Structures are given as C-alpha cells and as structure tokens.
Amino acid sequence: MRENVKEIENVFQSHGFSIDSIIQNVMKKFKFRSLCHQVGFKKQQGYSVTDIMTLLLLFPLMLVNSVNALYKSSYHNMTGIKKDAFYRLKNNERMPWRNLLLNIAKQFQKLVNPNKEVAEKAAFILDDTIDIRTGRKIEKVSFVHDHVAGRKKSTLGFKNLTLGLFDGTSFTPLDFSLHAEKALKQKHRKEQYNKKRNVGANGAKRKKECDVDKITNALTMLKRAVKHGFQANYVLVDSWFSSKGFISTVRGIKGGALHVICAMKKDFRKYDYNGKEMNAKQLLKTLQTEGKEKRCRKRNTRYFEVTVKYTGINETVKLYFCRFPYQKKWKLFLSTDESLTFLEMLEVYSVRWTIEVFFKETKQLLRLGKCQSQNFDAQIAHVTTTYILYTFLAYFRRMNDYETLGGLFEEIKDEMVEKNVAERLWNLFEELLDVVIAAMAESGTVDIRAFKTSPEYAHIKELFECSFLGNQLFDGDKAA
Q1: Is 318 in contact with 306 (CB distance < 8 Å)?
Q2: pLDDT by residue (tens digit) across 158-172?
Q3: What is the pLDDT, as a whole number, of residue 9?
Q4: Which of 85, 95, 273, 301 has its CA 20 to 30 A from that of 71?
Q5: 133: domain CATH number?
Q6: How much is the pTM?
Q7: How many domains are there within the chain?
Q8: Is residue 91 part of a domain?
C-alpha cells in the first residue's frame, strides 16, 4: 500500500498548496527567527514572537487592514493566537523595530551580494511621502503639507521620511522616521492619545523624532546605515534636501566616499564662477551669453555644464542646467562628482525614481498607511512590517525573475484569498477519496475503523494537515 501513499503525496505536490515560496523559503533564507531574537524581540506570554510577526507580515496578502479585521475574516480559525497578543507586540515601546529592519536589509544584501561588490550606480536615496490618517486622536498625528495637491493643501497624517539603498538592481528600505508638521488646534490636541514612555525606550526615541527636522533625521539615518556596513557611491535627493549643510555633512561621511547628486532650486543661492558670485538665474544667463550650450542626442536635451564653487562648501561642484523636450523652464542639478558628464549624471539621478515606485507599491499593494491605531508605537510597527514584507517580496522577485512586484503580489494573493480553504479542501478531498478507496480495495481492507488505526492512515492524515495554511505558517522553526 506504500505505493498508494506515494500517490497521495503526488496529489499534494500537484496542487501546490504550500505558500512556502514566501513564508518558509524566504523567511528561512533570511533566518528571520534568529534575527528577531538577535535584535531583542522577546516571547509574548506563551506565543512565539515570530509567529505573531509572520501573521502581521501577511495582513496585506490576506487583504486585511487590522488585527480586528483578521478575526472577522475567513482566516480567523488559522491560529490560536488571540487579539491581545498582537496588540501587546505592536504597542510595546521596547520593541527594536529599527534594528530589525536594518538587519533584514543587511541579510538581503548578504543573499544577493555575498562578495560585497559596489555597483557603479549604487546609491542611498532619501525622500518623504505622506502617510494619510483619518483619526485626529492618533498620537502625534498632524496636518502635513501635500505638495502634489497644491501649495496650500494640507492632509491629516504623518510625513514618512525613508532611507533606501539601490544596489544596482533592487531598491530596499533601510530606515524611516515619521514626522509631524502643522499641529492640530488646542482642543483637538487635548483629545489625542498620549502614552507615557520610559525615556530610554525605543518608542520614546521614535516619538521624539517626530519633532526633529527632516534634514537632521536624514543625516542621522544615513550615518547609521554607513555604520551598519551599507555601501554606495552616491546619495540622491530632491531639491528640498539640497542645503549647504546637508551636502557638506554627507561629503564628510567616511572621508568623502559618498557623492551627492541633487536637484536644485534656481533661487538666491550664490555660486562662484570665474571669480564672480551670482545666483542660478544670473549664471544661466551668463552661460547663454558665452554660447556654451550643448546637446544630448540620446535624451534630446539642451544643457550647460559648469564647474563652480558653491559658497559655504569647501570644494567645487558641477552644475547642470538642462531643458527637456516640450518644457519651457530650465532644470538645475548639482553633483559633487565633477567627473560625471551630463548624461552620466542624469542616468545616476534617474535611479532616485525607484523610491517613488517603492512608495506607490507599498501604498497600493501592501497597505502602507492603513493603520488606524491611536498608539504611536503601533504606527511604527505597521510601517516596519510593511517594509520587511516589501524586502521579502523584492528578494523573491529577484530570485524568480518577476517583472513587477504587482504581478508577484497578485499571484500570492490569488493563492491565499481567491481559492478559499473550503474549495481547496473539497477538491483535495475528492482526489484523496479516490486514492484511499483504491488502496483499500487493493489491500482487501473492509473495516474502516481498522483502516483508521493503520500506519497508512496516519501518514495520510499527516500529509493532509501539512496542507493547512496555519500549519504551513507556524510549523516551528521550519516556518522561519
């Protein structure tokens, strides 16, 4: 009868019931359980912290926005973990979420770049995005400027400042901080959730960052990433970060190993050109008068490039004025790497677009910003788990040549959601029944109760239980 049991194994294999592609294989590759313990995540009153984390990571794939939504969904029976265990983890001010994200990113680099090679276009990328919220009682929530909607438009939520690394192939998030801007009215501030935290707790430090300016936080995150061993050639930012202090500080990191490429505003800032100080508009007019305009055929772009002294920085920089097709206004870019031609600078700076794609995909696919918990610690936990899931998906996509994260997400979502548990088990049961009846007929077994005590039945039961989603997720160390 052992051959018939093998047939049953083939049934399971042919159905592809396992979601080990993301849960078992990827988390095992990242040594997720070990990483959680190394950074200081501790057991939550009898439940494995990695089991709770695994479910938190899967919320977007299950299409649920909250812990409460999980227990109202068709997945509510997949685990014995109670709601309170999730809330204790998310609201715990001592949890080292930042260290966990950094270590996940480190593990990603070890897996995809074991030789620690630095790609020519490898770059740290800094940018912010709006995390919209709807509840005014959320701790530290405020009105933040929405530059997309207009100069005077503000939205309730946080400004999420994120640092990521483009390693030449993939973008991975390394760090982030949530920021408040325009405070609510006094009567609404009194209604906001306010939690007392130990001054040295991780949660207290993250909350304090809310009121620190973004450039200071950006530089702190960048220095922290370099200290953790992440390597790149460039730091890419938009014009908001292009202050003298930011550029000079970045150039001072690791003895000038990092170059800055950024967009610049054509404002009052002075540049020294041939011994004369002039602002961007005056400099552009001078270059036009001197007839130094060039043309980039590949980009169909007219441009000027000039080496100047940027007043307040103890080194020369290269400026690039360019006008793209069908645009009337000239754009201005700055690079501290004077060796770059206009085309080379543009190709490196275009890498900055990967963080915009990252924000779009995490919001549309992974539900970034959907957490409505009033506790600020839970907000940090939400963003961190979203970024970790993105890193796992990015690794799986890179190893399996998926063209887009959206395509990968749809495939996993289909596996977990659209084929519901009842339908999958019924299809499987029909095939198993055929195999069992054939096995019983061949062995001459008539008594069903006798068959249930046989080793064959025990083996069949074990195979069947292995197909359950909950068992696949929480199968001890195998799951992570």
Answers
A1: yes
A2: 999 999 999 999 999
A3: 47
A4: 95
A5: 3.90.350.10
A6: 0.83
A7: 2
A8: no
